[in-house]
Specification:
Low-confidence stretches: 1-42, 275-287, 298-310
Number of domains: 2
Oligomer: single chain
Strand content: 15-25%
Largest sheet: 3 strands, antiparallel
Number of helices: 10
Distance between the termini: 41 Å
Shape: globular
């Protein structure tokens, strides 16, 4: 009942009208845009100068010492640009979004309930992001609790509890069903021994994806086609409450944005769904999506100092793309 109530409430949220998805980017996007109006008198359409955008993104990528790829999609115009779009990159915690999508897919199929209990045992608690590692042995959470903690504070223990319940290979199967055959979670967080693809796990860490595939996943979420409109809206609602705000959210002027970050010494990542109000209406709809995964540094830059250099670049990119 709780899951159906949440789905019913969220199903009233309007779906995406336009999406920009940029993935594996490093730097600021300075792109010219022009405003137009839809034939039916709807809200204005902003059309990006994709040639200028590509030049700017490529200049940023060329200046970075690591490897940069991106994929950008404008759903209003159908324009798409990418660089290394089909090349695989580490995801860090961005792989938690495919996990979230799989959880809601299983709920939609009746194979899982958001109210199902998850008992936290000492053996389950892992370090890194999150608070569940500090809770007492025997704490009982729900699937929905774990989904929120995984998505909003990137809780690693919550992620592992969910993977134990849904099984890693089901994430693979869900991504395959969406045509995302290179988007994979390898293991539980901080538990590489649980990997189902050890060679890839050693190479990429927790997960792997391509610019085009992660862009496509967020496009599907924005369109209500990752699971279904109600479930996708519920997931975007969760991601709006992500507490990490040092990337783009800090520049959003109070506008809430569904976003997910992921960062290690080897990769910086960020994803966002931007919302806007429709003029003359109380309705809210998504205007754009910016997904940033990477950049991947060179071997000599795989260190905390490299991470500190990358984060401001990613922030600048997302800030300028927002505009």
């Amino acid at each position: 009942m709780r899951a159906r109530s949440i789905a019913s409430s969220n199903s009233r949220r309007l779906r995406v009208a336009a999406t920009y998805v940029g993935i594996l980017l490093a730097g600021a996007v300075a792109c010219a845009a022009r405003a137009g109006y839809s034939p039916n008198g709807g809200p204005p359409i902003v059309r990006a100068d994709t040639a200028a955008l590509r030049r700017t993104l490529d200049s940023i990528a060329d200046a970075h010492h690591g490897v940069v790829g991106y994929s950008v999609i404008d759903l209003e115009t159908g324009a798409r640009i990418n660089r290394r779009g089909d090349e695989t990159f580490p995801t860090a915690s961005l792989i938690k979004v495919p996990i979230l999508v799989t959880v809601y897919d299983l709920v939609a199929k009746g194979q899982l309930s958001l109210d199902d209990p998850l008992t936290v045992l000492k053996i389950d608690q892992v370090p890194g992001s999150g608070v569940i590692q500090f809770l007492h042995n025997g704490t009982v959470l729900t699937v929905q609790d774990a989904a929120w903690l995984m998505s909003t504070i990137s809780d690693n223990t919550a992620t592992n509890l969910l993977l134990d319940r849904i099984i890693i290979r089901r994430v693979w199967a869900k991504m395959d069903s969406l045509g995302l055959k290179h988007t994979r979670v390898h293991s539980k967080s901080f538990l590489r021994s649980s990997s189902v693809a050890m060679d890839s796990s050693v190479k990429y860490g927790l997960g792997v994806t391509t610019p085009n595939e992660m862009a496509r996943l967020f496009e599907l979420l924005a369109m209500g086609k990752a699971v279904n409109p109600a479930a996708d809206s519920a997931m975007l609602h969760i991601l709006e409450h992500n507490t990490t705000d040092f990337m783009l959210q800090r520049y959003a002027g109070g506008v809430r944005a569904a976003h997910k970050d992921g960062e290690t010494d080897a990769v910086s990542g960020f994803t966002l769904v931007r919302r806007r109000a429709i003029a003359g209406s109380e309705a809210i709809r998504e205007r754009s999506v910016i997904a940033v995964v990477g950049p991947r540094p060179s071997i000599s830059e795989n260190c905390p100092e490299s991470r500190r250099r990358r984060s401001p670049v990613v922030r600048s990119l997302t800030r300028t793309t927002w505009i």
